[in-house]
Amino acid sequence: MGCARRPIDGYDTAYDRYQRSARSRRERHRSQRAQILCRRGPAVLVSLRHGFEQMGPVRTARTLTKLNQQHGFDCPGCAWPETPGHRKLAEFCENGAKAVAEEATTRTVDPGFFARHSVPELLARTDYWLGRQGRLTHPMIIRPGSLHYEPIDWDDAYAVIAEHLRALPDPNEAIFYTSGRTSNEAAFLYQLMIRAFGTNNMPDCSNMCHESSGTALSETIGIGKGSVSVTDLEHADLILIAGQNPGTNHPRMLSVLEKAKARGAKVIAINPLPEAGLLRFKDPQKARGVLGEGVAIADEFLQIRLGGDQALFQGLAKLLLAVEDRAPGTVLDRDFLDRHCAGFEQWATHIRAVDLDTVSTATGLSRSQLEDTAAALVASRATIICWAMGLTQHPHAVATIEDAVALLLMRGMIGTRGAGVCPVRGHSNVQGDRTMGIWEKAPESFLQALDTEFGIRCPRQHGYDAVDAIRAMRDGRASVFMAMGGNFLSATPDTEVTATALRSCALTVQVSTKLNRSHLAHGATGIILPTLGRTDKDIRGGRKQMVSVEDSMSVVHLSRGGLTPASSHLRSEVAIVCELAQHLFGSGHRVPWARFADDYDCIRDAISRVIPGFEDFNTRVRRPDGFVLPHPPRDERRFTTDTGKATFVANDLHWLPVPEGRLILQTLRSHDQYNTTVYGLGDRYRGIKAGRRVLFIHPDDIEASGYAPGDRVDLVSEWTRPDGTVEERRAEDFRLVPYSTPMGNVAAYYPETNPLVPLDHVALKSNTPASKAVTVRLVPRRAPGKRPDGPGIELDPKSA
Ligand SMILES: Nc1nc2c(c(=O)[nH]1)N[C@H]1C(S)=C(S)[C@@H](COP(=O)(O)OP(=O)(O)OC[C@H]3O[C@@H](n4cnc5c(=O)[nH]c(N)nc54)[C@H](O)[C@@H]3O)O[C@H]1N2
Ligand SMILES: Nc1nc2c(c(=O)[nH]1)N[C@H]1C(S)=C(S)[C@@H](COP(=O)(O)OP(=O)(O)OC[C@H]3O[C@@H](n4cnc5c(=O)[nH]c(N)nc54)[C@H](O)[C@@H]3O)O[C@H]1N2
Ligand SMILES: [Mo]
């Protein structure tokens, strides 16, 4: 038992405790699988510690040995694909295992819990505390004027919801949110129910996430998804990783990058922060965890200023054009440009006018760094650009990504081996949910196919995205809000505004696995419907049902939960949608809801007739590694844009200058959270031991603002309205942590900082909150001595 004897990071103690306390031989025997996992190293040990704490050793072993296996369940962590073919026993990472432990916990939040704790009391708790209380076990309702949730029967809950929906003067006064964990099957039925009801109001987490990528990619290459596979990454010469922290958020990606490097690929990290996983790495599946004295994944680190990436991509394009001018034929793929592209000449003229000094100012990078990077691009025969939230959550995010695409197009580097675009998705099925029609502006072809399959008439008017949904509730244009998963209140910007918007609703409904802050900002009536998660066994129609998901690289595969659910009252998301639809539409509706609820194969059959690429869905999804959806640029260099060509877009250059006496704040994830779910209060990759209310700031900026490292301050954000007046928002009590970040650029954790993000501060075209580009200033604390690590998000409990 290597792991028990080798104390690393102190994480062996949970295992030791178990060894001492294991009561029966049988339990010991069953834990052997856990021991096998133990031998895989400390990152796995951290996973086990979380597992043991939340669900005990036996359930931990049973769970982790099924994670990402062909007959197991898909990791609810991130959307990074599994390695096709032979899978390792531990085909998961530390953070995936934490996500699983969080869901598979044996702790429960039952009616007694809600009787003990009123909503105002729960509002004063931290997000960390809320998340640790366990799985929701019963449908609950809070009635007008009450301070407590109380139990309600499923049928009664459906009746209340259906009644509210039917009473609306216009279906567009209802809003239906989706988070990205929802399976394909549930998502397909959910959007069907919503459209049959009569609205396209389907905001989803994508609106806060990769919407900018989808928008930019649709405009340039005709499809809003990435064009590369894992194999492409392994065959690339050069991989740029911009605005992404894979060591924390997509750890399994690092193993692929390591393989690529072994084959000679060069990796360039573009980030304001020296993120640990990129700069010091060890395979999380076989060695001492991502940290330790590992190797650098990145060959080069460009410490870019926040929001400087568009300037970088344009500057690099200019340098590449200059090389082509000096040595024609060395850079441009003329054949590809002539055959497949539109707008190149106009774009090139625009790019030639870019001023490289401006690029240096905007990026904070020296001329030689730019030239070296350009040289690496010229030398590479196959380049991949990967990115995540560091590019998408800026005001000029869409233009930035379009400029990244142009850098590849000019060299013909799309639809060839080892090259292309790689937006790395977040939620494990966020891409699949969009494919299934969770989209406020789904295309006509999709709506028509639904009409034909089900004999309904889908509404054509575009619906609200997340930001517009908040505006609609705030302004009284919507009064019923339903969420399929997620934590709308904490994930969206402008927390106070969003809370007021939700509280102004007549009804809010949350389909959830765990308690979160959104349950506490409810409408006059609030309902919680507890649901099965990815890990749970789902028995319907007398047999075990399976669902499917689509990963970041368009691979669709099955997920089968195997654990005994936390309570016998839980229902699957599919069942909840079907049962609600039956209450809403009555019997005899054209959609066979009852059949769908009892046989998920029937849902897949319907999907196979509605959505291109899903032909023969039930057969192909049962293949060991599932199947890959079509992607015209990747498969046949076909571009389904308006012009039928890959499009160069000439974008004006934007960046984020730092106003005098102010700082630009990015809001990001720690190593110990999953979006709004906080696993722990530390961030060991950034050296934070406890406490999430920290501000990472350049030491000179601390000094210039008259503070000392460790001082605690309030943050005030500033937002200039179109009429020139300035709005201010405040978040209290952040500790100043000197850190390696560009001058004028600071970082702090989401969701604690969401109250600072103005609702109207969004990316052009994608309407994504620009939560990595918030202008702030430091001010002395308003309430010194207050709680050191208070509620994740400050909301006034009295206004509940
Ligand atoms: N363990 C864990 N895994 C997760 C999640 C989680 O919360 N926890 N969340 C999931 C989800 S939904 C998503 S979308 C992904 C998110 O994955 P990431 O995008 O990696 O998440 P963030 O923490 O927002 O990190 C953004 C990164 O971009 C950098 N950055 C910020 N602004 C800029 C900029 O202007 N330019 C450049 N070049 N870099 C910039 C930041 O320094 C940081 O490294 O992860 C998914 N996986
Ligand atoms: N300031 C700032 N804000 C951000 C971001 C940022 O970087 N900065 N990132 C944005 C991004 S990228 C995203 S994706 C969003 C995330 O937004 P969301 O997806 O809305 O938020 P999560 O925190 O992932 O949702 C967690 C909740 O989902 C529920 N849940 C978990 N699993 C299941 C399930 O299987 N079924 C159901 N029905 N419920 C489940 C649990 O109740 C849990 O409390 O946040 C966005 N907000
Ligand atoms: Mo995301």
TrEMBL record:
It comes from the Bacteria. One of its GO terms (cellular component) is membrane. Pfam families: Molybdopterin, Molydop_binding. The keyword Oxidoreductase applies. Residues 780-800 are annotated as: Disordered. GO terms for molecular function: 4 iron, 4 sulfur cluster binding; formate dehydrogenase (NAD+) activity; molybdenum ion binding; molybdopterin cofactor binding. Its cofactor is [4Fe-4S] cluster; Mo-bis(molybdopterin guanine dinucleotide). Residues 663-726 form the Molybdopterin dinucleotide-binding domain. Keywords: 4Fe-4S, Iron, Iron-sulfur, Metal-binding, Molybdenum, Oxidoreductase. Residues 135-511 form the Molybdopterin oxidoreductase domain. The keyword Glycoprotein does not apply. Belongs to the prokaryotic molybdopterin-containing oxidoreductase family. This is FdhF/YdeP family oxidoreductase. It comes from Rhodococcus pyridinivorans.
